[in-house]
Design goal:
The structure is a single chain. The protein has a 4-stranded antiparallel β-sheet. It is α+β, with helices and mostly antiparallel strands and 221 residues long. The chain contains 8 helices and 6 strands. It starts with 14 loop residues before the first helix and ends in a 5-residue tail after the last helix.
């Protein structure tokens, strides 16, 4: 993309407004939980589209925006994804996962049965775009792809949560079946599978705690 510097002078907030906004945002996000129990209540497509537009505002290496989001509500496609994910996950849980990983997952009660894939009204598959195909047959490499897509995914999770929706970050291993089912080109690699919807009426979530600020923060002044 051509670089054209433009004036950038967003309105500067007062310290009081900044602190209030940050405190409110923290309270909202502190209530976020990963959810595996979804309501079948529909979520309008435009809600999903706006959340993905927000994800697309994330910073990226050289502004290449190396991401692609595929949102799926089609029940048959969701069923195909669930079947493939469960096959991959069963192999992982039964034969490939190290004991330490299984021990870490045990308190969360997760296994290779993935009902949330078909229960949630939407699935969002996040793809990383490693390069762009050029018209002359060459390729143009993207930069800092995992970091850029990770940041965009964080934007997406926050947008969905603030809209009152729940989600789950799911990484079935391996995930190559997602590219085939979604019909994506070879320059795109599956990065994340996210069921999205409202929590079920009887939804429960693990009683997790976050690390205290002192455990994750150090100031060098």
């Amino acid at each position: 993309m051509p670089y054209e510097p433009l004036p950038y002078r967003p309105p500067r907030r007062s310290l009081e407004d900044a602190r209030r906004e940050l405190d409110e945002n923290f309270q909202i996000m502190a209530s976020r939980r990963s959810v595996r129990m979804f309501s079948s209540d529909p979520v309008p497509k435009d809600i999903i589209e706006t959340a993905i537009r927000i994800a697309g505002t994330a910073p990226s290496g050289a502004n290449r925006q190396p991401w692609q989001f595929v949102a799926i509500s089609n029940p048959e496609v969701k069923q195909r994804i669930r079947q493939a994910a469960e096959e991959a996950e069963q192999e992982f849980y039964l034969r490939k996962a190290p004991k330490e990983w299984l021990d870490a997952l045990e308190p969360l009660g997760t296994d290779f049965v993935k009902e949330h894939i078909t229960a949630a009204p939407w699935l969002i598959v996040v793809f990383r775009v490693d390069y762009v195909e050029l018209g002359d047959g060459g390729r143009s490499k993207n930069y800092y792809v995992p970091e850029s897509v990770g940041i965009a995914t964080g934007f997406l999770i926050q947008a969905l949560h603030r809209a009152g929706l729940a989600t789950l970050t799911h990484t079935p291993a391996p995930m190559t079946f997602l590219r085939e089912i979604c019909g994506r080109p070879l320059n795109e690699k599956p990065y994340l599978l996210m069921p999205v919807g409202y929590p079920a009426d009887d939804c429960t979530a693990p009683n997790v705690s976050r690390k205290a600020l002192a455990e994750i923060f150090e100031a060098i002044e």
